[in-house]
């Protein structure tokens, strides 16, 4: 037997308030084994604690990724909705173009439509398509005038109200530049065209605008679809002609079909 195995460590335990004691005799070899086991247990606990912190950090990162994925899914749904709306608008626009296509290859239509792609025109417009004076009826159909210009007796109505079904085709009364296009609490979706020489025209209550600010338009070009947006009780077109900012009676310049 080796010297280290013959050597012992004696531990005496005396309980408080008791006259009896307990004595434990441990060899140095057993003590070394216990020390090694304690070190192994401490190392295992340390590794477990480190693993827990690592897993907790990874779990937090996963939660962030899941939140980002949900946000991307919501954004994708919005993009899908916009894409469907764009397809719907393009289909409606193509139907408009088909409706006003030429009946004969050599006879241009009374209504001018730009290509849906915004590219070069596919046909030659009529010679008077560039006429700037707002003298063309602003609809492709007759409609029914429910309110004429009024500027007397304390009342004021600066243009024509023309009853027409929703999504009827609104066209430019004369060639010019779109100087304003947007939404208004009274006029709803509207378009304003500057024709030059002090003349401008306004088209209100549209359900859909087909032109943007700064765009050049030709006489009889379809610029919007009629509707009932803004302060309106029924589908109609509000049509104004202004000269140097003052409303003039549109019926002095245009004739109802």
- The run of helices and strands is HEEHEEEEEEEEEEEE
Overall morphology? rod-shaped
Gyration radius from CA atoms, angstroms: 42 Å
Give the tally of β-strands: 14
The gist of it:
The chain is 30% helix and 30% strand.
SSE order and pairing:
Layout (H helix, E strand, L loop, with lengths): L2 H4 L1 E6 L8 E6 H72 L44 E4 L2 E3 L2 E3 L2 E4 L5 E3 L4 E9 L3 E9 L2 E11 L6 E2 L4 E5 L9 E8 L2 E3 L9
Antiparallel strand pairs: 1-2, 3-6, 4-5, 6-13, 7-12, 8-9, 8-11, 9-10, 10-12, 10-13, 13-14
Give your account of this protein's structure:
By secondary structure, the protein is α+β, with helices and mostly antiparallel strands. It is 30% helix and 30% strand. It contains 2 helices and 14 strands; from the N terminus they run αββαββββββββββββ. It has helices at 3-6, 28-99, and strands at residues 8-13, 22-27, 144-147, 150-152, 155-157, 160-163, 169-171, 176-184, 188-196, 199-209, 216-217, 222-226, 236-243, 246-248. The strands form 3 sheets. Strands 3, 6, 7, 8, 9, 10, 11, 12, 13 and 14 form a 10-stranded antiparallel β-sheet that branches. The chain has a two-stranded antiparallel sheet with strand order 1-2. The chain has a two-stranded antiparallel ribbon with strand order 4-5. Strand 4 and strand 5 (155-157) form a beta hairpin. The termini are far apart. Mean pLDDT is 81; it is low at 102-109 and 115-124.
């Amino acid at each position: 037997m080796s010297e280290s195995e013959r050597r012992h460590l004696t531990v005496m335990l005396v309980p408080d308030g008791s006259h009896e004691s307990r004595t434990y005799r441990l060899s140095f070899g057993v003590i070394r084994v216990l020390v090694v086991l304690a070190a192994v247990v401490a190392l295992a606990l340390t590794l477990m604690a480190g693993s827990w912190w690592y897993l907790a950090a990874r779990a937090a990162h996963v939660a962030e990724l899941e939140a980002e994925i949900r946000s991307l899914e919501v954004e994708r749904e919005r993009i899908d909705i916009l894409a469907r709306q764009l397809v719907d608008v393009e289909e409606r626009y193509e139907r408009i173009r088909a409706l006003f296509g030429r009946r004969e290859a050599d006879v241009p239509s009374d209504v001018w439509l730009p290509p849906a792609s915004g590219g070069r025109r596919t046909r030659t417009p009529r010679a008077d398509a560039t006429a700037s004076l707002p003298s063309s009826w602003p609809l492709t159909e007759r409609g029914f005038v429910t309110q004429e210009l009024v500027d007397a007796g304390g009342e004021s109505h600066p243009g024509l109200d023309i009853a027409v079904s929703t999504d009827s085709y609104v066209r430019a009364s004369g060639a010019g530049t779109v100087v304003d296009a947007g939404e208004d609490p009274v006029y709803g979706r509207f378009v304003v065209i500057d024709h030059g020489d002090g003349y401008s025209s306004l088209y209100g209550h549209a359900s859909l605008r087909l032109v943007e600010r700064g765009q050049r338009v030709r006489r009889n070009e379809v610029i919007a679809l009629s509707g009932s947006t803004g302060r309106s009780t029924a589908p109609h077109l509000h049509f104004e002609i202004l000269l140097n900012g003052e409303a003039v009676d549109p019926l002095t310049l245009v004739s109802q079909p």
